[in-house]
């Protein structure tokens, strides 16, 4: 791993410089002192910021950037803008997302809208201040406008009685190489699954009893994972029955069940889901290329995805979501586009395009470190977007992660009326979410301050099972305290 030392007049800039440098040159370790193969320095002199980057036996560059003389210190984002211009010259490339490194850029648009900014003012802010390309600025505006249909009422005082509920099943039949979630493989006898399931039902009861005293109603319900459909049909029925008993589900706008691994789906489980009012099923092939799936440790069986889509559609669920990941294995752009065509022909109403992110905890990261391959290029991403739009899919939510090809984005596309409301609310952070189970973080929204308070929990099933009473008591008290306040 290459090591780059930051020599900064303002050491507090380290985080901002690290985030942006990684977008240009992923996988480089930065330090503030000691021996390193390269040095990036920042110095301020009167009304100038001077940046220098030099690697041993490599390219060196120094540039000075002028700013209006002021007694007030510059905002960190101003320095980040100077660094962006500098790195663009050094690496001879620009980033579609400019200086933005956060995961929720649509939320920034929504903030400006609430402040009364005009569309042209917002676009100019992203293009001129954050160096975002015109294409991505327009995409953000388009998605923010779409999301306004679903979140405008969330800011009303009465709407604060509505919350979302996330139930986590962090267990899988096996773990894919790219997966960074703290998911547990179900043992052969299913004992760890059964113990977790028993505890989960108790947490549902305890949480539901507290929230009912607070006059809260569930707006969206998402059962995610892991792979929730590792549960048997009888377990799934018991889980959904418990949710109905202890929570007010009479105001649900959306009920989602992740069924990501096709080998875990059968008719009995789908019958249970349908009987309990599930409207949205997520089936995630990730790729339709068998060589790709086998190379990343994801089981593949010829024709299984197509068979399961037919089965799911026979039940008449409102929405089928299917996910694809850009950058798996050694796929070429043509490989991915063939997967996309196959998925389109299967007729889902919702398609999410993820970009492979090299994350801590994944087998790929453990084996190879942060090695981000060359991207497919902007023409490829435009081709994906245009192909989906030609089939009446519209982008409705977006988020970004680190260490992805081309520093790109993840976009959810949906046909009108099939948008994932839970996804929209999570990214907008304008509604509380109660998390039940291991790894299910609670997000408690305060409309007065427009802030989110986190209720963290343990991520792994083993710890959850061993410390169950302590963990659940702590979570329930946090929820009760927040709503009592």
UniProtKB/TrEMBL annotation:
Regions that span the bilayer: none
Q: What class of enzyme is it?
A: oxidoreductase
* Domain Radical SAM core, first and last residues per copy: 155-392
Signal sequence interval, chain numbering: none
Q: Which Gene3D superfamilies match?
A: tm_1862 like domain
**What are the EC numbers?**
1.3.98.3
Question: What protein is this chain from?
Answer: Coproporphyrinogen dehydrogenase HemZ
Query: Which terms in the Gene Ontology molecular function aspect does this entry carry?
Result: coproporphyrinogen dehydrogenase activity
Q: Which UniProt keywords apply?
A: Oxidoreductase
Q: What is the lineage of its organism?
A: Bacteria, Bacillati, Bacillota, Clostridia, Eubacteriales
Report if keyword Oxidoreductase is assigned: yes
Q: Reply yes or no: does the keyword Metal-binding apply.
A: no
Q: Which organism was this protein described from?
A: Acetobacterium malicum
**Regions annotated as coiled coil:** none
